[in-house]
Amino acid sequence: MANNKTTITRKVAHAAGWHVVKRFAKMLPFGGTFIAIALVGDDVRKKGLVRGVANSGLDAIPFVGLTKNAVELFTGDFIPDKDGRTAK
To answer: How many of the other CB atoms lie within 10 Å of CB of 12?
Structure first.
């Protein structure tokens, strides 16, 4: 049998890659709107109801979401996660 051990480095790279893909997908001018709407539940779970809906609302506005996510790639989230959690 093949050895299918997943290393910590591989898990971190996979999670970071998915985070970047979601961020870039949200940056698409009009396609990003649908992705932001689909990910409302994820934002609400991480940020709380009000912050999550506000974050998704900003992401859903075509060029506002583009600008917000482009800046967040370098500076981090404008709206912090609840209880100081960070993205995995």
So the answer is: 11
